[in-house]
Amino acid sequence: KYIAASPGMIETLKKAIFLNIKLEENSESIPAILIVGGPGTGKERLSKIIWLFTEDIFNKNTQPIEIKINMASIGALKPQKSLGDVLGEKLSQLYEDEKPLVIIFDELNSLSLEDQGMLLRLIENKDFSDIRLTNSISPENLKSKKILLIGIMNEDPELLTKTEKIMRIVSDEKLFGGIIGDILYDYFKHHLRRLREDLYFRFQRYGIIKIPELNERREDIPILFYNFLKRNGINNPIIEYEVFELLMDKSIQWPGNIRQLQAVAKEVSNRVTEGVELIDYFMVQEVLSNIGMIK
């Protein structure tokens, strides 16, 4: 389930459902979608909606094979590994069947430029030559499969492509020659996340979906809050209207998005007296005050 009442979120869901992606066997490239949203906006859940409504999966009611890789964790692996190593390990665990393959790259903005190049070749040419496979599955076997690739990131990809332009500028010897250029390049290399423009344009071809922040879709708060209470065991919550007005007030900020609202609902649920499922204004106000959301 993906609950939404705001026009912005409904439009986002419609875009995800009607991407009109068709997965093809022996295709020369891989359809690639990019989902952009802040922490706790529901990016992984939206990725499931995307592959659920792709033509081949939806029409045939097929459960695909799903592989998830967190890009931020790759750089922290000891010994150090590349995307080709990690993806190769995942793909090598597959067995031969006709099910579609969905590969989800979480925190795509944490991927090194070298691995971004490898990912671009994979998307553009279905090139598995850099993927280190360890069993009988060959690149030829994988090329024949129906594959969908979904990237997830929590930063604006347009800003990340601009930082890549900055790197090219500071590496220009005519502008920043010698020691100063080397210092600037080294700093930006280790402190700025970057996204290759050609990879960004490849995602643009199939679709980039941006999930609005909860602050931008406050109309969703009442129905989300109600459902979170029910998930926490309050079967028939009776919520005062003033509670919704409080939660939707523009003076209250939701940087943690849905996850933050879930935490508030959990704390409110803990305060509900057994047998009395009334959620009143002062109860919610106290919870928000205790966690520093209001003074």
Features:
Rossmann fold; single chain; alpha/beta; five-stranded parallel beta sheet; elongated; Helicase, Ruva Protein, domain 3; 47% helix; 295 residues
Walk me through this protein's architecture.
The strands form two sheets. Strands 2-3-4-1-5 form a five-stranded parallel beta sheet, sandwiched between helices. Helix 12 packs parallel to helix 14. The radius of gyration is 23 Å and the shape is elongated. The chain has helices spanning 7-17, 43-52, 55-60, 71-74, 83-91, 113-125, 139-143, 157-170, 178-191, 197-206, 221-231, 241-248, 257-271, 281-290; strands at 32-36, 65-70, 101-106, 147-153, 208-210, 238-239, 278-279. The mean pLDDT is 85. 47% of the residues lie in helices and 11% in strands. The protein has 295 residues and is of the alpha/beta class. The chain contains 14 helices and seven strands. It has three domains: 7-155 and 194-210, Rossmann fold (3-Layer(aba) Sandwich); 158-192, no CATH class; 214-290, Helicase, Ruva Protein, domain 3 (Orthogonal Bundle), CATH 1.10.8.
